[in-house]
Design a protein that fits this description.
The chain is of the alpha/beta class. The strands form four sheets. The protein has a five-stranded parallel sheet. Helix 11 (about 285-300) packs across helix 12. It contains 14 helices and eleven strands.
Length: about 350
Amino acid sequence: MNEPIITGTHSPVPPPPSAEQADGFTSIQAINDSVAASSAWVGLLRQEISKAIIGQEHLVERLLVGLLTGGHILLEGLPGLAKTLAVKTLAMAVHTDFRRIQFTPDMLPADIIGTQIYNPQNTSFEVKQGPIFSSFILADEINRAPAKVQSALLEAMQEKQVTIGDETFTLPQLFLVLATQNPIEQEGTYPLPEAQVDRFMLKVVVDYPSMTEERMILDAVNHTDSKIQINPVLGPDDILQSRKVVDTIYMDDKIKDYIVSLVCATRDPKAFQLDLHDYIETGASPRATINLKAVSRALAFLAGRGYVTPDDVKSAALDVMRHRIRISYEAEAEAISSEDIIRKVLDTVPVP
């Protein structure tokens, strides 16, 4: 699939240094310079998103992390908190193709990936591709569709390919699934399979705006003319180039050990002097370790740094691990959530 590219928007980005070279001040400074040069679009993108989204800074930052890492994001929040609007605004600000899929209980897998259609003219079956063949996918109210529809997304999300009949098709290089779900509705919803939930890099909980932000929303919304013009400020090449720079951001061995310790503490709390064994049914998977590394680097990139700090890891921990820890019945009975467990782990595991 040919993706439109914006040219002439930004100055040329110098080639990033390799991560192996980042062993001294000179190398770190080179990475800093590379980050500064390749992140020129970040401020422009935030400005465009702010035209439609007031507040929700955490949500916007996590959407940018998804762009920089290629990781899929699950947004959970009550209706009316601008989850869908934020994703649509992001898609409009990036010059590429975008599809919104409204999930419903009567959906079929073919509604997502496509199907084979019989052509009587040449007496053969032809593949009709579904909306999954786009760079940005908004899976709206994803928990309203049954399990067989959810399973249709698994191959696309993990392998970035789709199989229809006996043919396999590669999805665009820039491919991102941004899903929303309502946490309180039970009727007409289906819990997401554990395997699919684990494929979301981040689970972001969207909360109410503050009183100040609510007043700004009240002043900004005009029901007689509610259409807001969002201009594309970057193209796929800008994002893919920035991803290469993110991969070169320096991470010290002590930070890597810290990430591994945080994840292992959810599997064997006693080894870290944590009295949480009765509250955890299963700890975080190895994807948590991998994603903590990627998200921490992306947060450093957004901060304009060529190196990762422990604060980057701690900032990423909740969104990376809250959906990867299964709590026990004892924890539910005592109203202890996976977030409470993660905070306890962050407070206990020594910070380098």
